[in-house]
Amino acid sequence: MPLQADIDTDLAVQESIARQIDGLAERLVASGALLKTLRRWFAGHADVPESDGARVDLVAMATDLELFAPSISGRTMIDRHRSGSRPQTEVERQGLEALGAAQFRVVKIVGREDANVVRLEDRVTGESLLLLDTYIAPEAAGLTTAMRLCPLTSGRHAHIAPLFALDEAMVAAAAKFARPGRPLSDRCAASLYRDVARHGCLPIPQQVDEAALIDAIGEVDERMTAVEILACRWIGDHGADEAADLVLEARRLASVDTLVDTCGHFGQAGADAPQGLKAAFERIAELQVETIAQRARAGVGGHADALDEAATAIADFVTQGAMQAGARELFERLRARWAFSASERAAASASSVAETDRVIQRIQALRAKTVDRGCTEDEAMAAAAKVAELLDRHDLTLDEVSVRGSTCEGASIATGRKRRAPVDSCMPSLAEFCDCRAWSEGGGDSALRYVFFGLKADVEAARFLHELIEVTFETEGMAFRRGEIYQSLRGGDRRTALYSFQVGLASGISAKLGTLKAARRSSTSRRPGFDLVVAKHAVVDDEFAKLGLDFISRAARSRRYVHGDAYAAGKAAGALFEPNAGLSG
């Protein structure tokens, strides 16, 4: 067993699994499935527990049950999620495979192997297992628990669903579901979860590696906010890696409410506060102001007026006497500091502004030739090739100093749709083509939009190509409706054929953008400007990290039947794109 495998990779896969579970859980909450399960557990037996922790555990148990319970067809929600997902990285692929191989087990905790690994023994098979975990305390050794274990390629396992200790009666009940040579069924999980919901359970002892909390306040108070806990950790003796984690956590927590909370705690921290606590609140608030301002500039939804909202809330609290005046003074000082810093950076990159503006003007001129009057595949990809040429020329005009001094911005682009469509599958290829980061927001009950984040010229190029691809779908869709395949069909078959054509067209456009991008990489790697391209990517990555955003992978919708000829027609249309035709400089 490769026990020396990179622990960081396993931790990354574990985080990927957790993100996927969180995304699926949101769908279950929205569908009402979890509420139905909880009602079945408590019908005629007991009230819902009053403690927040117990309620969270019960929701997690219900989620686990719904995710892994097979439907009439024999497939689980996890099965459907895996078949509909397209992993973008090796870590995501491993996470999906681990979820697909997950098994419900009853295990005994043998003891901790090291800071990251706990040894287990399967109570049914006798198998020795290694669990990737940093929280189970050494005092838990000897306890029996139930876990949903996901096997990792290293030989370790990641667990999902909450942990709870089983007494001998519960172990005996679980043993009734054991079958030689077969894993425990989900009927066992359902029985144990229902028993826990109705009668309660013993918690698994957890270790808290928060020495700074103890030093600061003597004990951990469950009423502490996330900001208070972060500040107490901040004043401890941290190495470089942990300090970076604290900065990332401060950015992730950034919101109007947490910023107001942080400034309020700063104002209340008096002379009797633990040494360094007031400075910790100030640093956290500084990071949050910067992060919120960066998100607003990047076009992240709901952040355009966030700092104004925070200023109003803090001023109101101070007026009401609920906050000290120092809270308002801190906020105003940090906001002014951010504005000054932003203006300095803009001045530092002024040398490249003129050239960037010229590139943007050329891109906008291309727009007049394509988007404003509609375009075919040939014209769209010819415009894309021209955009690639303009961006490459722009990169070569910059020096490393101006690149590293550049600021990033974002463009939020509304689609006018609430539902996803085949054209949306082009967005990852488009972002990669323009050296941008991209993500979607909204959908469902709110309008779907895309945010492209990067250097100014690259973002403008992404905005233009997004419009270009949308218009291309309209143009080619109308042409397909006039064609032989569509005209030979009726009713729902026509809708299926059009959808199939659009899926094929999206596949063709994405592939062609990928080909163009590969050609750009090959060309720039042989030119002196290649190092500047690497520097540009580093700038975008660094600025993107400052947004402190968390993303979830969205599971694809259930499969639809496609019309083979229509899909082939769309794919062929994409394959016939001619990137060098049509447009002149």
TrEMBL record:
Domain DUF7168: start-end pairs: 413-521
Pfam families (alphabetical): DUF2786, DUF7168
UniProt-listed InterPro entries: DUF2786, DUF7168
Stretches assigned to the DUF2786 domain: 358-397
Domain of life, source organism: Bacteria
Protein name: DUF2786 domain-containing protein
Organism: Chelatococcus reniformis
